TrEMBL record:
Residues 309-359 are annotated as: Disordered. Keywords: Membrane, Signal, Transmembrane, Transmembrane helix. This is Leucine rich immune protein (Coil-less). The keyword Signal applies. The lineage of its organism: Eukaryota, Metazoa, Ecdysozoa, Arthropoda, Hexapoda. The keyword Transferase does not apply. GO terms for cellular component: extracellular matrix; extracellular space. Residues 329-339 have a biased composition (Low complexity). Residues 311-321 have a biased composition (Pro residues).
């Protein structure tokens, strides 16, 4: 009997602890910026943690249609969450470690940026109702699953994902999304933009391919002919140094704005390109108020002057002595056609040093020459006396044999 009571008490304790662990969660209404320059009121959950093997939290029933999770940690949303929010239409999950995205029937807008999403699940007719999906900054690569299941999409943001295949953005894969009006494919580390199948995206109005590393040989404007209604193209920070344009209206018949900031165009090319766009009533918005050294600002866009960095301007005032480390370097500056003007004219220290060296060398030559002359004179005098002594010896009388006999 006592054993039965003990077991019953133990079960009660376990049930109570489980109930306590699985606490109910309630969201709070607040204004939230869920995307850049986009705000709305959401019922917000914060710091929700769901660990494997631990009891799942219990969400209080709510009629809210817009729900957001911030600063949380879970790999997927529990089924009980969707049961507690049967009217859910908007879902925002930001930087919460989500790996699997589940889309239910009534959901229309999903922003799940900065997570770990690699796969998505669309239940029932959810694919036909979802109009906006942002998977920005997730390791997501399965574009086919989107194109097959989410046919109602109008806005799709895959920036910062892994959807580029072999460094190539393939526009044809998005062709089944016939209602798509905005497509964001920025920062995919792509070098190529292709549509070899020439599949049209008839409804697309906005395309963003900024932040990819296109080069002129890999980038052809004719690829945009399959986007007949595109009005706005974002081509910022694309490492572009050249752009071949004959008549941009042939490739983009409906375009109204092209964003070109952050590229590396030559100023001469940029001026010609902007003139070409103006003639066809196409805007090229500028954003830069100042440009780095070696670049000019042309209508708010930075460009290289003649493709080269400007040399430093020659000083017009007194020249300070350079530090010792700089005296061993050689600086080449452009040859001026006119002498510099200003409060004071810089002294040509190089010529002065050369003249001083020449004066010093002349003094040395005079000294050496004087020593040489003195030596020559001395040698001449010595030679003269030696010659006289030898001549005197030759003039002495030679003793005869008679004289020798007399001496004997």
């Amino acid at each position: 009997m006592n054993l039965i009571k003990f077991i019953a008490l133990l079960l009660a304790v376990v049930h109570c602890s489980t109930t306590i662990a699985a606490q109910s969660l309630k969201c709070a209404n607040e204004q939230l910026e869920y995307a850049t320059d986009k705000r709305d009121e959401f019922c917000v959950f914060r710091a929700v943690v769901v660990k494997k093997g631990a009891p799942e939290p219990v969400f209080e029933n709510s009629a809210s249609t817009k729900v957001a999770f911030l600063d949380s940690n879970f790999t997927r949303l529990p089924d009980q969450f969707f049961q507690a929010f049967p009217q859910l239409e908007w879902l925002v999950v930001m930087s919460s470690g989500l790996e699997v995205l589940t889309i239910k029937n009534r959901m229309r807008v999903v922003h799940a940026t900065g997570n770990q999403i690699k796969s998505l699940q669309a239940e029932g007719t959810a694919g036909a109702k979802l109009t906006t999906l942002s998977l920005r900054d997730n390791p997501f690569a399965d574009v086919t699953s989107i194109a097959k299941r989410l046919l109602g999409l109008e806005v799709l943001d895959l920036s910062g994902t892994e959807v580029a295949e072999d460094e190539t953005i393939k526009l044809a894969v998005f062709a089944p999304l016939v209602n798509l009006t905005e497509l964001y494919l920025a920062r995919l580390e792509a070098a190529y933009l292709e549509n070899d199948e020439e599949m049209e995206l008839p409804s697309l109005k906005v395309l963003d391919v900024s932040g990819n590393f296109f080069t002129p040989s890999n980038f052809k404007l004719r690829v945009f002919r399959t986007l007949p209604n595109m009005e706005e193209l974002f081509l910022r920070d694309a490492s572009m140094t050249d752009l071949s344009v004959t008549d941009i209206r042939r490739d983009m018949p409906a375009v109204k704005r092209i964003h070109l900031g952050g590229n590396d165009f030559n100023c001469k090319l940029l001026v010609a390109l902007l003139a070409h766009l103006k003639e066809r009533d196409i805007e090229a918005p500028g954003q830069s108020s100042s440009c780095p050294q070696g670049y000019d600002n042309v209508e708010g866009l930075c460009c290289k002057s003649h493709g080269n960095v400007y040399p430093p301007r020659p000083p017009t005032g007194p020249i300070d002595s350079p530090p010792k480390e700089e005296q061993d370097t050689t600086t080449v500056t452009p040859t001026a056609t006119k002498p510099p003007t200003g409060p004071s004219t810089p002294i040509d220290t190089t010529k002065t040093q050369v003249k001083e060296k020449e004066k010093g060398s002349s003094k040395h030559y005079l000294i050496y020459g004087g020593i040489t002359v003195v030596l020559l004179i001395g040698l001449s005098v010595i030679g003269f006396f030696v010659h006289r002594r030898n001549a005197a010896k030759r003039r002495l009388p030679i003793p005869s044999s008679d004289n020798q006999m007399q001496d004997l």
